[in-house]
Amino acid sequence: MSDPVGRLSADLGRVLRAWEPGSSEQAGLRDEYLAHLGEHPDAVLKVGPPEHFTVGCLVLDHTRTQVLLTLHAKAGRWFQLGGHLEPGDPDVVAAALREAVEESGIPVEALTLHPDPVHLDRHELVGSFGRCTWHLDVRYVAVAAAGAAHEISEESLDLAWWPVDALPADSADEIGPLVAAALSRLG
Fold it and tell me: Is 118 in contact with 58 (CB distance < 8 Å)?
């Protein structure tokens, strides 16, 4: 299928239907995502409606005791890596891995991505995000190899490892559930 909207929306629908949510809240969010995708297949791309899908990737160190976070240039807060799906992405999981590599500078061969989402998060955007109003984030987890070096990208003000039990105060409420879900999924 050469049509990126058709390819990515079909893949996202497949991913969401196959995903086993960890709570009733996450199951409800999955159902909302599927309904939105059914009404707006073009929501898989940034050029779609202002409420659209994104992918996130939480990168843990090889000991799973630290998480690599980016100081987001537009939001001015620490978050997991991630961003918009792009027309050239073959599927949703590839988009999550691409975002992790682009934003961390860690080579793809030094990241092991879990193939299933670990968490969903729908959040309103405030500030200078242009026409984007809501992100429906599908979040994955990757583990970095021992000694994997990171590099700040143009999308970040900073990039740093944070202990999983001492997340930045201004972002802990949002990142905490993702970290917990990721650690649980990885066992």
Answer: yes
Domain hosting residue 92, numbered range: 4-186
Q: Which two tokens stand for residue 181?
A: 């879900």
The number of folded domains in the chain is: 1
The per-residue pLDDT for range 17-42, each reduced to its tens digit, is 999 999 999 999 999 999 999 999 99
Residues 143, 133: Cα–Cα separation, whole Å: 30
Q: What is the CATH number of the domain that holds 30?
A: 3.90.79.10
pLDDT tens column, 150-181: 999 887 789 999 999 999 998 899 899 999 99
Residues 6+ apart with CB under 8 A from 72: 78, 79, 155, 156, 157
Percent of the chain with pLDDT over 70: 96
3-state secondary structure of 56: strand
31 vs 99: CA distance, rounded Å: 25
Q: For residue 84, what are its two tokens?
A: 């918009």
